[in-house]
Amino acid sequence: MTSAPASALDAPDTPHPVYPRLFSPWKLRGHTVKNRIVFPPTCATWVDNIASGTFTDMATAYYEERAKHDVGLIVIGATHVHPDSVGAPVMTAQLFNDNNIEPLRRIADAVHRHGTKIGIQLVHVGMRSQPTPRLDPLWDEDATWATVSPSQVPLGEFPGSMTPKELSEEEILELIASFAAAAGRAVRGGLDGVELHASHGYLAWQFLSPLYNKRTDRWGGSHENRLRFVVECLRAMREAIGPDAFLGYRINSTSFWPGDLELADVQRIVADIEARTDIDYVNLSAGVHHAFIHTPMHYEAGWEREYARAVKEVSGKPVFLVGRVTTPEQAEELLESGDGDVICLGRQMFADPEWGTKARETRSEDIRRCVAANYCWRSASSGRRVQCVYNPTMGREGKWGAGTLLQIEHKKRVLIIGGGPAGLECARVAAARGHDVTVLEAEQRTGGHARLHALLPRRSEYGRIGTWLTEQAAKNGAKMITGSPVDADNLDAVIDAYRPDHVVVATGSRPTSDGFQGWTGEPMPGVATAHVLTWEDAVAGTGEAHGRVVVLDDLGDVTGPLTAVALADRPGVERVSLVTRWPMIGMDTLADVAFEWIMPQVYEKDIDIVVDHFVDTFDGTAIRLRNLHRPDAAPRRTIEADTVVMAVSRLSVNGLLPLLRERAVSAEAIGCAVAPRGTYEAVYEGHRAGRKI
Q: Which of the following is catalytic: 202, 212, 281, 307?
């Protein structure tokens, strides 16, 4: 049975003067959703642990924070419907027993207080995980130690992926019943509806896809048979939740994977699902590989619009549109064009849960825009709670949410030395609390390492971190003084001039140019005979790279390979080689799915790649390398280099801290001045310091 179309769009009594479509209400089943801002299903890591999967008070504060800032609809992220779905690496919630009914009720009550509707996405991951947690001796000894799928097709995305167990008829029916039972529990927990996760390569998609589904029974083979599992799940879920709760599903518009479903296939699936089930919306995504699910920063806003429009052509239900939307201007244009009926803000709501309020108040410039650094996926995929690279309040809403920056009773003169992410966030927060804040930055521009990373190919968006922090700190009253280095020679004059009550040393770290690294704990032999630049000098143009260039990549992050890409087009550069002692370049970029976007650039520029090798010695323009796995073998490899670019290690710049303490000045160090780390740690420590001053 199919209900009447739920896509009738109500016009508001008083349209918003700037974003009338974005802030117009719409019908979802029997519910009126107040606007078209949707916080879509994202990693629901706000649980006690991976085994229990029970929502904590952290979850309540997290979802309420977004509801109180004008989100119309929240869909809690992928929640397991069966114990066999639990696996590594992502820690997330479950609804295969009653443990989460009361926690969900607390979440629902908190969200409903702000007029926001809320549902939950239900999932079985199938083979798309590792059953590692279930192998633990403390786990249920009768747990299944294999992943499951329609057929025994290994997961092609990761090396060493286990081949799944093929589901039996009885097990398939059990899983359908599990989806229904979980849906019933969600509604008993006070939620307004549920969503089936049929995208991103998880179990429901595995049944739909001819790549994963090789069955010859009624659950596979033909289009009709491959569709059966999803249809039966949706029918069972509808029966479990009754006629009033909403029911939707998420599906990829396309797979971006050879041999998998493409747009035309999905259009047919969407039309058939709509004809066979009583659903209320289609939540559209794209890609089974995480490189597309978490698209990189060089993708334009609304990049999935054409896919969504194609699905709208075959659907009479509201179609949810996602795809790097960060501003209300972008959202309004997408809605006005008819490409989608509502706008999903996933990573953007990680970055700024106040997005809706700022949009309604036409303060677009104050929005902390997502830069698609994908630290969120890096944190979640390593088994931690999902975090944002420059919103340290995420997951800490109960303590650090909006309205918790209390004004100080006694204003202090705060001097922050260093205008990188740590210093800027400290300035932003301390100034917001009422302190008299001055930031001294040695360079002509603030931003620190975020500004430098933005110089790398296709990484310009990263610079927005420093730009936003600078603008917001200044708006809060902090004074920014650039071109003002502070060192041992002028420290006394600086103290006399600013008379600070407290000094924050946020001077960051510096890249080493002598090849110092952790393999030998020493500089590289003979380095003084070579023409050497740091990667920062190379991309900023403060050092000349010419001739045959060798980039030494010991960090394993984006800097080595993207510096090589940048130099490949530099006038005067003849050839670029990339050398690392690791088994692959950019090894650390796998976790934030940057690797898949870096490597095409590396190959496009025809950069020579040498892995498993370390510098034995420099001799002028010759670099002698040794294979780390055959260190005594001869002959050793020699590579010619007119320019050597080091991306090997960083050391803290923190010499001012002991000098300040010698002078009995209240002082502390934050960020990379404490130890070289990333943007996330720097901004967190800046925020924490700003709250404590």
A: 202
